[in-house]
């Protein structure tokens, strides 16, 4: 397997704990977002999934990907820390883009926290650029009041 190709597959039920542990190791989880709930929601939809990849035989890559019928999005983009800076993140995003493209979706959107300069620089190297938009949010589920 080359760094250009990272075979991804849909996450299996028995891999949820490993995926969440990977997201935690990569600093992607937040107290106000329940990753178990996020995974269940994505996997229950025809328009989303959690994709995982193995590097050297171990689960070391994961991305939640989905679309709204018009735009695709990637969330929880994670490469195990010991494999970062080796080209796998680029391969993971390429695979997420291919997942969307295979469903007729031609544009990807990303949300990156303003203070995450390393992630912003990574995505800019992949051709992503800040848009002339403002992200707005509203919690509409009282069970997720801080989200």
Task: Describe, in plain words, how this protein is organized in 3D.
The longest helix is centred in the middle third of the chain and has 14 residues, at 88-101. By secondary structure, the chain is an alpha+beta fold. Helix content is 29%, strand content 21%. It is globular and about 40 Å long. The relative contact order is 0.16. Strands 1-2-3-4-5 form a 5-stranded mixed sheet, sandwiched between helices. It has 4 helices and 5 strands, in the order βααβββαβα.
Layout of secondary structure:
Layout: E1 8-10, H1 16-25, H2 35-43, E2 48-55, E3 58-67, E4 72-79, H3 88-101, E5 108-109, H4 117-125
Parallel strand pairs: 4-5
Antiparallel strand pairs: 1-2, 2-3, 3-4
Mean pLDDT: 90
Rg, Å, rounded:
15 Å
End-to-end span in angstroms? 38 Å
Structural class: alpha+beta
Helix content: 25-40%
Approximate strand percentage: 15-25%
Number of helices: 4
Query: Main beta sheet: strand number and arrangement?
Result: 5 strands, mixed
Give me the count of strands.
5
The ordered string of helix (H) and strand (E) elements is EHHEEEHEH
Uncertain segments: none
Shape: globular
């Amino acid at each position: 397997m080359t760094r250009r190709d990272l075979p991804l597959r849909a996450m299996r039920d028995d891999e949820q704990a490993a995926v969440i542990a990977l997201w935690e190791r990569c600093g992607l989880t937040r107290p106000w977002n329940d990753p178990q709930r996020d995974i269940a929601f994505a996997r229950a939809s025809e328009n989303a999934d959690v994709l995982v990849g193995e590097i050297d035989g171990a689960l070391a890559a994961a991305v939640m990907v989905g679309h709204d019928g018009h735009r695709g999005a990637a969330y929880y983009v994670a490469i195990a820390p010991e494999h970062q800076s080796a080209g796998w993140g680029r391969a993971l995003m390429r695979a997420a883009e291919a997942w969307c493209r295979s469903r007729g979706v031609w544009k990807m959107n990303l949300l990156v926290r303003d203070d995450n300069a390393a992630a912003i620089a990574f995505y800019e190297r992949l051709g992503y650029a800040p848009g002339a938009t403002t992200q707005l949010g509203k919690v509409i589920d009282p069970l997720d009041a801080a989200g």
